[in-house]
Amino acid sequence: MRSIGAATTPIPYKTIDIEGFLMFVLGETVCQPQGVKATILPCRDIDVATLEHHNPSPSVHSFHARRFANQTLGDSTYLVAWRERVPVGRAEIKWDGCADDTVKNAHPGVPEINGLEVFPETLRGNGLGTQLVTAAETEATARGLDRIGLGVAQANPAARRLYERLGYHGTHTYLDRYSCLDSLGTWHHFADACVFLSKPLPRQRSRVAATSLVARLRAALTGARPHGPRHM
Ligand SMILES: CC(C)(COP(=O)(O)OP(=O)(O)OC[C@H]1O[C@@H](n2cnc3c(N)ncnc32)[C@H](O)[C@@H]1OP(=O)(O)O)[C@@H](O)C(=O)NCCC(=O)NCCS
């Protein structure tokens, strides 16, 4: 390994967070949540019953089954956070955006992160919600989308603070309406006052440029030859 500048001891590559620095400079989301690390994967059919067991639906209609069905139709991606084979969180990315027409018209083509929850409650505040939001952003970026949004209840300022810290902003208010059927056959209807927040996503081009720059810097520091076409 080459030494840098006047330093007599070689600086180990990993002590310089080149990726983090470049991603920051190039506008990439820099999100290194501390705490509990989860593996986040799209829901599979065999996961639905496990999810229902660990995070029961308030309605007799399983919302995990409904969200998995939406994913099967291509309307959404239902992300599940796993920790040691136990589901600890979930979030649905609705590719056709918010169900509310006023939001959809004002934010055309903007997918919505919906139904974000970390469970059990004792696991909250450990970075899992941040990891789910980041995973959803990565999915949307991979699809070439330039913005993503989410609705947050006005009665949930703690969640709103988290989203604003992650770069989400907005003022569009609307009513989020939904219904639940209980085991006695009674429907319960809800209308939560919400605000829609959105965030620009990094352009794919920046990501490619950053990756290429990182490869060149790594090569310069380690003496390794970067992969890719050679120009003679
Ligand atoms: C909101 C939620 C998904 C965030 O996930 P999380 O894993 O707790 O969040 P992170 O650990 O990544 O970030 C912590 C931040 O989340 C916010 N937060 C919101 N609700 C919280 C809760 N019940 N417990 C802990 N943090 C919460 C806090 O602002 C906290 O920031 P702080 O450290 O400055 O206090 C999770 O707390 C949750 O499931 N809450 C109940 C359901 C809900 O409100 N969903 C949001 C619908 S829009």
Structural account:
Keywords: Acyltransferase, Transferase. Pfam families: Acetyltransf_1. GO terms for molecular function: acyltransferase activity, transferring groups other than amino-acyl groups. InterPro entries: Acyl_CoA_acyltransferase, Bact_Acetyltransf, GNAT_dom. This is GCN5-related N-acetyltransferase. With 232 residues, this protein is of the alpha+beta class. It folds into two domains: 1-28 and 203-227; 33-201, Aminopeptidase. It contains seven helices and seven strands. It has helices at residues 18-25, 47-54, 63-72, 101-106, 128-142, 157-165, 204-222; strands spanning 39-42, 76-83, 86-94, 112-118, 147-153, 169-181, 187-200. A seven-stranded mixed sheet has the order 1-2-3-4-5-7-6, sandwiched between helices. A hairpin with a 2-residue loop joins strand 2 (76-83) and strand 3 (86-94). Helix 2 packs antiparallel against helix 3 (63-72). The longest helix is centred in the C-terminal third of the chain and has 19 residues, at 204-222. The radius of gyration is 21 Å and the shape is globular. It starts with 17 loop residues before the first helix and ends in a 10-residue tail after the last helix. Mean pLDDT is 84; it is low at 1-33 and 228-232. Bound molecules: coenzyme A. The site of coenzyme A has 17 residues, from strand 4, helix 5 and helix 6. The site of coenzyme A (COA) has 17 residues, from strand 4, helix 5 and helix 6.
